[in-house]
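Before a colleague's protein record goes any further, I have to sign it off. What it holds is a sequence and that sequence's fold in token form. My question to you is simply how this chain folds and whether the tokens agree. Thanks in advance; the entry in question is below:
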Amino acid sequence: MADEGDVLTNLNPAAGANGADNQPVAGIISQYVKDMSVENPKAPESYQWQDKPQIDLQFNIGANPVNDEIHEVELKINVNAKCEQGSIYLVELSYCGLVGMRNLPEDQAHAFLYAEAPRLLFPFARRVIADATRDAGYQPLTIDPIDFNGLYAQRIQQQRAQQAAEQAPAGEA
């Protein structure tokens, strides 16, 4: 059985036979449901409700190092469907991927962890959410695609603007 280091080497065809491995490489090693909760608190009454549900959808992305070359990227998705009569369902999903990276500059590694890896994981997490809502007895919830790279760029821009505002000299009194 190959270890994670072997997986990274296999992702990188530029790695020489002499052991020199200095080319940048990044990829998803594996993915999995880390935690999931599905609540259907008002069943079976809620199956009779005719109101269109209000869907509250929340995302959060996190990354934690496993070792120098492997990180766990976590895509948290919370879906809360409510209508006037009460809560219809609540789905909380923590979908993760092990990401291998080697020889990447810090800014590229950060972008891969918080933009590209979530983009790659999202279609699978989206299917888990759709299956969970269907299995709870409702229409499958198909989440619209998300531009993780655009959100990442927007977040970096906001952080830079905030840093610039904090470093700006105070005005004269």
Observations:
- The chain has three helices and four strands.
